[in-house]
Amino acid sequence: MPAEARFNRARNPKRAVYDEAVIHAILDAGLVGHVGFIAEGRPMVMPMAYARGPGCVWLHGASKARIVKLCAGAPMSMTVTLLDGIVAARSGFNHSVNYRSAVLHGTGRAVTDPQELEVALQAITEHLLPGRYAEIRPMTAQERKATGVIALEIDAASAKVRSGPPTDEPADHALGLWGGVVPVVTALGRGVADGHTPDAMAEPPSFARARARFAG
Q1: What was the pLDDT predicted at 11?
Q2: Residues in contact with 186: Cβ distance below 8 Å, sequence separation at least 6, in sequence order
Q3: For residues 152 and 58, what is the distance between their CA atoms, to the nearest angstrom?
Q4: Mean predicted lDDT score pLDDT of the chain
Q5: pLDDT above 50 (res 8)
Q6: Radius of gyration of the chain from Cα atoms?
Q7: Beta bridge partner(s), residue 35
Q8: What's the distance, CA 214 to chain centroid?
Q9: What are the angstrom distances between the C-alpha of 57 and each of 2, 85, 96, 99, 185?
Q10: Are 148 and 110 in contact (CB under 8 A)?
Q11: What is the C-alpha to C-alpha distance for residues 134 and 208, in angstroms, rounded to an integer?
């Protein structure tokens, strides 16, 4: 994230975090970003694969996709949310969720430089499965032509985090009701091979690396 990026002060700063390392950690742990942009005068939000780059987030799409065509030079935003638990309080009012959320604002830039495009595509692939790029065949010229990448150049970023038990009213603690947190766990299972994978072929190492990311 560039030094000039602003860390927004949200209207409700109670759970806001402005630490760049915290924002990076949320982006690195997420799998899907929800990207906001304007199309035909209407606000749109699309789930997209992404990877964190220098001062930007690279977004993957088809070269003819609406977002790739419209967002070069246009304002954009992206959110990534990690849900960690359901907070079960002793009143409906105090129920909540434990979460980590990053919000980015910036400007779109079409990635046209071949070297940056190669780096971005590898980063997006390995954001999902670390080390996967070395396990697969190179991209063909036709595939590269059909692939679009937008760089969201980050102008401002902020995060919000909620953790811990419910914030019940003191009088409610004596009601004899259950209160606490129901953890939400994200995990990757074992790979399920398709019918074209050689019999008894072991999983690629990238799968174990991806599982370790969530386990850690």
Answers
A1: 41
A2: 82, 214
A3: 6
A4: 90
A5: no
A6: 20
A7: 46, 78
A8: 13
A9: 12, 27, 30, 21, 26
A10: yes
A11: 15
SS3 113: coil
**Residue 3 pLDDT greater than 70, yes or no:** no
Residue labelled with tokens 């969720």: 97
Helix residue ranges, H only, the chain: 20-29, 66-70, 114-128, 141-146, 205-215
Buried b or exposed e, range 48-70, using 16+ CB within 10 angstroms: bebbbbebbbbbbbeeebebbeb
The identity of residue 97, as a single letter, is V
Domains of the chain with CATH codes: 6-182 (2.30.110.10)
pLDDT at 215 over 80: no
The whole-angstrom separation of Cα 88 and Cα 72 is 44
Q: Which residue has the tokens 């749109």?
A: 44
